[in-house]
Design goal:
25% of the residues lie in helices and 27% in strands. By secondary structure, the protein is α+β, with helices and mostly antiparallel strands. The protein binds biotinyl-5-AMP.
Length: 274
């Protein structure tokens, strides 16, 4: 049996050997098991841990998605990680960090596994229309300014369908399932970190990731149903229409059937037949 076939703890030396970054992933906090990497990363961000610090675990006991949903992963099979940044962005622009990281994950899937990934608005990465990764960006504010962002990434690498809980079996996939063989978590992780730094640097030099992200969104041009999760949305609003475009803050613009346009900042998208 190839050693990749067996779940083994992450080998950080193999990650470091592949890093080409100056600061992203140069500081690594590894835990075999913890509640949520986003929680530990937020705690460290409040204490000004260095930019690009990686918090990574082989198992989470309280992994979460948006609105407190669960993120599920068997031990030692996938990537469960969070990155700390102090971007000079307004809080409304923080979604750009999700874009930078989602694009880096999509690139890494191509580079390391030869798979073509799509992005689903606002924070999913898909392989053949199934969810392979989710991104959870959380903010720290100081007054009206952004103090830090923590970008959590859960990427299904070597989990098999038989190991997936019923909740996600129909909608989720993994790199190994799509590729038909196990893939090195270390190689994928290093490629993600390298890509994140490259893209983050470009953003810091004034280039917005929005255009590239928008071009990679499987959602645009589709007829969709969107359950609105924006903070200012009254409970359980939802919309159906054509997903026309995204704007600089990453909000989705829908064209409703009565011809009006509607801006949705956060939500859940389901494709509709047309
Ligand atoms: C997300 O939320 O997709 C963001 C997930 C971020 C997880 C990472 S893991 C490291 C870091 N630490 C954390 O505690 N979190 C981050 P959302 O769009 O709300 O999607 C959540 C939904 O995805 C769940 O309700 C399930 O339906 C589904 N789901 C759960 N686990 C999954 C998995 N392993 N693969 C695919 N889908 C999953």
């Amino acid at each position: 049996m190839n050693r990749n076939d067996m779940a083994h703890p992450l080998e950080l030396a193999q990650v470091r050997a592949r890093l080409t970054t100056d600061y992203v992933g140069r500081e690594i906090v590894y835990r075999a098991r913890l509640g949520s990497t986003n929680d530990l990363a937020q705690e460290m961000a409040r204490q000004r841990a260095p930019e690009g610090t990686l918090v990574i675990a082989d198992e989470q006991t309280a992994g979460r998605g948006r609105l407190g949903r669960q993120w599920l992963s068997p031990p030692c099979t996938n990537l469960l990680m969070s990155l700390i940044f102090y971007p000079l962005l307004a809080p409304a622009q923080a979604q750009r960090m999700t874009m930078v990281c989602a694009l880096a994950v999509a690139d890494a899937l191509g580079l390391v596994a030869g798979l073509r990934a799509d992005i689903k608005w606002p924070n999913d990465i898909l392989l053949r229309e199934k969810k392979v990764a989710g991104v959870l960006t959380e903010l720290g504010l100081q007054g009206d300014a952004l103090a830090y962002t923590v970008v959590g990434i859960g990427l299904n690498v070597n989990v098999q369908i038989s190991q997936m809980p019923d909740l996600i079996r129909q909608t989720a996939t993994s790199v190994a399932i799509e590729k038909g063989e196990p893939v090195s978590r270390e190689a994928l992780l290093a490629a993600i970190l390298n890509g994140v730094e490259r893209r983050y640097e470009r953003m810091r030099q004034g280039e917005s990731p929005v255009d590239e992200w928008g071009a990679r969104l499987a959602t645009l041009g589709q007829r969709v149903h969107v359950a609105d999760m924006s903070a200012d949305a009254t409970t359980a609003e939802s919309w159906e229409g054509w997903a026309e475009r995204v704007d600089d803050d990453g909000a989705l613009w829908l064209r409703l059937d009565d011809g009006t346009a509607r801006r949705v900042l956060a939500g859940d998208v389901t494709l509709r037949a047309h």
